[in-house]
Amino acid sequence: MLRLDGISKSFRIGVLGSRYVPAVRDVSFELRPGEVVSLIGESGSGKTTIGRMVLRLLPVSRGTITFDGKDIAAFHGRGLKDYYRTVQGVFQDPFSSYNPVFKADRVFAMIRTGYFPRIRDAVWREKVEDALIAVRLRPETVLDKYPHQLSGGQLQRLLIARALLLDIKLLVADEIISMLDASTRIDVLNLLGDLKERGLAILFITHDLALGNYVSDQTVILRRGNVVEAGATGAVFGNPTHPYTRRLLSSVPQLHRKWEQVESELSGVAGRCPVHTANDAGAALAEVSDDHRVACLALGEDRPCPDSAAVSAGTAGR
Amino acid sequence: MTLRVTGLKVYYRTLRGDVRALDDVTFGVEDGEIMGVAGESGCGKSTLGKSLIRLDGRMRYVEGRVDLDYKELPIWDDADMNDFRYKEVSLIPQYAMSALNPTRKIGLMVRDLLESRGIPFDTVSAELERRLGLVGLDREVLGRYPIELSGGMKQRAVMVLATLLNPSLLIADEITSALDVSTQRAVAEALVGFRDNGFVDSLIVITHDISLVYQIADTIMVMYAGKLAEKAPTDVLVNSPRHPYTQLLISSLPEVGVRYEGKRLSGIPGSPPALLNPPSGCRFRDRCPVAFDKCGEEPPFVEIGPDHFAACWRAS
Q: A187-219 burial, b if ≥16 CB within 10 A, otherwise e?
């Protein structure tokens, strides 16, 4: 449904925009209906940039993003509005997504004037209530309230309800639970799981490996704009292959298991670089098992990959 | 015993009355102990940290006493606290970026700080460089501006600064929450190193992330709505919590390896009570699955096992 094909993004920096910093390099993955893909990375990994490109908030520098076979860069006017009818985003800070001067449910009214100008009042009210019930909010407790009267979890769920008003097929959820308290976090995560069962595709962007693991089918691990490891969540977390993935996993504070314990479990020999020992050396990612792809093990390090010399220098250029 | 807090009450002044952010809190921290304080936003954990060092203008000391190394801390008196601040009690704030003056080089700022306390910079500069090395920073950072350092580097520089005079008690307030996971681990382990090297006697680590304090703390104290809910040695608290709030909080955390399809976790329904006019009795009563008649009375914070304290009628 959504397909990212070798997309890259560089930002201009400097006084006259004379220099470029690459933020995302050659990232490809696919999202199918009813599937949750987690984009996991630390700050500066390009995960938010990818989400913003999918939402057409940023243009792509190279590569294409296609939705149902159509290049999203070509959408204008009417076409773009139709795109937003099916693809919506929810962002990290629920408090800054609302205008504090107006009541929180104004976000619903804006959807109505923008997308459903001719709908009857009664029908609309029912639609709003259905959306609120879908995100497990009681309409009477959240409607007609100002943002400061509601909790972060309620505001975040209101934003998801707003997206649901539009029969969306894809939701881009960028760090939507990192500002929420532990006791309400899991409710929003479970909600994403329920929406997925209704056939919604979700691009779940997070820095927290445990959250990504809980809800997603596919996982993409990013480092400085590159994909280092990707595949089925069970494969990536069950058999982390790239040293960066292992380092991330061994740094996550876990309950019931101390850092030293996790580290000793993960500190096996890294093995040969799958990219440079594969037959088709030169691809960015090599398949190590079914639905589990890993980048060159030296990716992002300052030293060259020890296995790249073994492959003849002529064919292995990346 | 390094720190002894007895019946401490600190309220926030508002136009509508007092907000009871810290209501009758009693606990102790031993020499060499790292105590984690965990809780959700608004539970009073940061108020606790702040009140041990400086009450800001909105905070009002009501009653209670704080003893550090058998001397009473005059926490209600801003000027008298100057003798203790930085030398005996020190704080690492949540955002290291806002603790550093952006227009001064870090070395100059350290000099200003020390001289304001009457300590010549030259007497400690060798030790300062040694300690920067211990947390993995080069001495060159002293010649740099804060903007030239990454978040993790700034956080570590502030940590060295805060502990330079070997305070008895160090309070670390959410110091890792703005950092990436790998930096987070380095910073947390540096804290343990400070204790092991004897730079600080004991530590209070305030965080919303109970799994972070599980990694480094000796004991964990859980707060709820301005009160203490439970305090126990780390392994006891995480593996056999007795207060229903602690139990629900721990069971609502997704761990690496837990999946939505396999094991659906659930949150805690409802939200904490407002502290402007908190309800009588147990403050967790409305959200508690095992509440009964007795919960209308306030449960005392009592010892229910060796070094294991809880405020719950069901636990005792």
A: bbbbbbbebbeeebbbbbbbbbbbbbbbbbbbb
Rounded to the nearest angstrom, the minimum Cα separation between A182 and chain B is 7
Residue B14, exposed/middle/buried by CB under 10 A (0-12, 13-18, 19+)?
exposed
What is residue B254's three-state secondary structure?
Answer: coil
Phi first, then psi, for residue A312 (nearest 5°) are -60, 135
Asked if the Cβ–Cβ distance from B254 to A209 is below 8 Å, we say: no
Distance from CA of A177 to the nearest CA of B (A): 12
Residue of B nearest to A189 (CA): B260
Centre a 10 Å sphere on the Cβ of residue B68 and count the other Cβ atoms it contains.
22
**CB contacts, 8 Å: B249 with chain A:** 182-183
Residues A112, A129: Cα–Cα separation, whole Å: 14
ipTM above 0.85, yes or no: no
Contacts of B257 in chain A (CB under 8 A): 213, 237
What's phi and psi for B250, nearest 5 deg?
-70, -40
CB contacts, 8 Å: B268 with chain A: 183-184
| Tokens at A12, concatenated | 């201009």
Question: Which residue on chain B is closest to A249 by alpha carbon?
Answer: B256
The pLDDT profile of chain B, 316 residues, written as one tens digit per residue, is: 689 999 999 999 988 889 999 999 999 999 999 999 998 888 889 899 999 988 888 899 999 999 999 999 999 988 999 889 988 999 998 777 678 888 999 999 999 989 988 889 999 999 999 999 988 888 899 999 998 888 888 888 999 999 999 999 999 998 887 788 888 888 899 999 999 999 999 999 999 889 999 999 999 999 999 999 999 999 999 999 999 999 999 988 887 777 877 778 888 887 788 888 888 999 999 999 999 999 999 999 999 999 999 999 998 7
What are the chain B neighbours of A233 within 8 Å (beta carbons)?
A: 259
- Shortest distance between the Cα of B256 and any Cα of chain A, in A, equals 4
Residue in B41, B255, B259 closest to A254 by CB? B255
CA distances to A83, A201, A226, B29, B207 from A71, rounded to whole Å, are 11, 18, 22, 61, 45
Q: Distance between the two ends of chain A, CA-based, in angstroms?
A: 29
Q: What confidence score (pLDDT) does residue A302 get? A: 67
Nearest-CB residue to B250 (from A151, A251, A255): A255
What distance in Å separates the CA atoms of residue A158 and residue A132, rounded to the nearest whole number? 7
Burial of A31 (0-12, 13-18, 19+ CB in 10 A): buried
State which amino acid sits at residue A153.
Answer: G
To the nearest whole angstrom, how far is the Cα of A258 from the nearest Cα of chain B? 6
CA distance A49 to A24: 7
Q: Looking at this protein, which amino acid is placed at residue B220?
A: I
B70 touches chain A (CB under 8 A): no
Chain A hits for B207, Cβ within 8 Å: none
CA B142, B146, B148, B151 torsion-angle sign: positive
